[in-house]
């Protein structure tokens, strides 16, 4: 896997291009020379966590024959006060929307993603206290 990150030549904006050809812009806040044209790099880390664990949970629930209509992942984090300002706490909250969902199966999918399958989660747990929970919303 290869990613190229290239400065746009303006302010603090950088374009990241993945080996798959997908592209995303990152930028800094205006108070440090950015123009707010994209998410901050640390926000991208949390977005990656959400995408990684979300894919796991949806795949597992589908394999468990659960009638999932939507999954929303809300991530709250805290960072260290000193540089490097790494994440120290991350809480992942899943909203699983569907019909007649089995709570034990949802719990199992969330736990397996956090404890075994989500590579991003496993990396972040080296520096941050990770926690997760879920709620089921009947569609």
TrEMBL record:
SUPFAM superfamilies: OsmC-like. NCBIfam families: PRK10738.1. This is Osmotically inducible protein C.
